[in-house]
Amino acid sequence: MKTITFYQKKPGVFRFMGWLSYGITPWLAPLILPLAIISDRSTAGAISFISYSSIAIISTFPDSRKAVHSVHQLFWGQFRHHLLSRQVSKRLRETLLHAGLVKKEHREITGSEGRTRRQEILHYPCAQIHKDKVNIYIQFKMIPGQTEQEWERKVNAFAHSLGSSLISFQISRGIVEITLQYGEIKANSVTYKTDTDHNLALGYATGGKLTWDFEHFPHALIIGPTGTGKSTFIRNLLVQLRSEWIVKVADGKQVEFTHLQDLGFDVATDTSGFIRLVEEAQTEVDQRFKTMETQRKNHYSQINEKPYFLVIDEAIYLLEALSTKKDKETGQSERERILGLLRDISLRGRAAGVQLIMIFQRPDSTFMPTVIRDNLTAKIVLGGSETALEMAFGRDKSKQLDSVTLGHGYACIGDGRIELFRFPDYAQSKFLDDLEQQRSSVAIQ
Length: 445
Ligand SMILES: Nc1ncnc2c1ncn2[C@@H]1O[C@H](COP(=O)(O)OP(=O)(O)OP(=O)(O)O)[C@@H](O)[C@H]1O
Description:
The chain is α/β, with parallel strands linked by helices and about 450 residues long. Helices cover about 40% and strands about 25% of the residues.
């Protein structure tokens, strides 16, 4: 994280010249040093010439060019950093002034000729500014006499003046903390899980990696209309599921995950397979509960069980295909029965370590009754469709969300904040290669 200096007054030209000279030091040094040290001008000139020629020759080789470039960056970067501090400070000073957050003091000043004039002195709040590749973090110390309401009313002005979006804002004990996002969230690399912790990375948010702690916030609901990168996102999740964990996949589209069968995964592609996976998962919940009861334990890890994932892709296709004809004996249709089992898993799965990951192309309350939806505590919407956001996060919260581009989504874990995040593009072929490699390395061990 870099620190940006906040100049309460416009820095003078000498400071600018000072930083500029510092910035070009590596380029001036071969000229100035020989002239300063050697009295014979022609010898000094020859040394300078040799030094510059050597730099030019060195720069033709890629490796040594890198070294020359990093020396240049070391010095020039400081000058650029000064320019950035000037620019940011200027914008902040203007914003603070227009927002009325500056204390003005008037003093009578008597000149040498004995004439008195009034001078306005501006007192800006002290500020600490830091930045990383995505965010700017500003911390202001309120001037005594200012109120929190005065700052609250003006907080958006800081985002506008720095051309960023407001991520968070907080006031406590006279300290105002503002986080602004100015850069694009980068999500270039797929996350491979190397630890055994019970969490999965969803992607990258403004504060860094966004992780889903599935132990505390069980089950995920993922909604993404076609073409929003749903399958890509799921690949990013699946690759993190450790090989000792139990993973079952119901593939409603019958294309996306069928290849996983070749790698030993239990994949169902038709209705009967889907029914089997749901029944098995629910039986697993029952059995784990029974074992926990007999052993007087209250968590699946205490009975040496591993996390169990039932991933249901394009759940609507699978649920739609289930019969709605009521059974004479039970009075329940097949669809109602399966929804009942899913509801049970969603309710009791946490303690048993059985997780549901349900993926929908379109939100539909028939196939996602509120009672199940509410128990899927990690909610993820890809592509930002209005209805999908509304269904996942509620009308009030979703109103504030902008539409997003491909590769982005919104996630809300538990009752937390809705976070904009980005996930990496991850081709099917690379995903299958990665899984194959993971499986073979486990086999070798
Ligand atoms: N994070 C990303 N960044 C850039 N491009 C992406 C990203 N995710 C997906 N894409 C691209 O978007 C296209 C659609 O991706 P994907 O097939 O995962 O979407 P989908 O929602 O599953 O679509 P469908 O429902 O039609 O299968 C692909 O060409 C993919 O390369």
